[in-house]
Amino acid sequence: MSRLRIFAEGHPNEPSLETSEHARISEELGKVGVRFERWEATADIQPGAASEDVIAAYRRDIDRLMQSEGYQAVDVISLTPDHPEKLQLRQKFLNEHTHSEDEVRFFVAGRGLFTLHIDEKVFEVLCVQGDLIGVPDGTPHWFDMSEQPHFVAIRLFTNKDGWVANFTGSDIALQFPRLDA
3-163 is classed in which CATH architecture? Predict the structure, then answer.
């Protein structure tokens, strides 16, 4: 189940808001410029499906975003608990960083925890199958896929070279819960 928790910057154990209601999550994130949507597949997607099949199942929504937001590239990332580089990949995303383009992820399967640091607040967004999150460029955030990752996600990019992180040097991500906590 999707979940949003909002914290004051210095209070990682005291959420001021916690909700699993999708409309409320979308509304709260929309206030700070973050896109949050539910998508439905046009075909049944099975674990291990080819990237082309995953993209084809969501082609209508992908095309809509590519046309309206100017995204130039799309791909699929899939991680499982037996991935040989899971610990290195997890560590890569755990520190606060920004991007020079929007970070757009649609969860075809599994889950992941996006945590956004906006206006002295921390927005913890648990994304699950069917959730799309669009984090605007320049937004400080971090991502946790857990120690035992299991997710398939469609990624959309403006930059055809894909994901480039600019780390902030802040240790704020260490103060807040991880996905497995």
Answer: Sandwich (2.60)
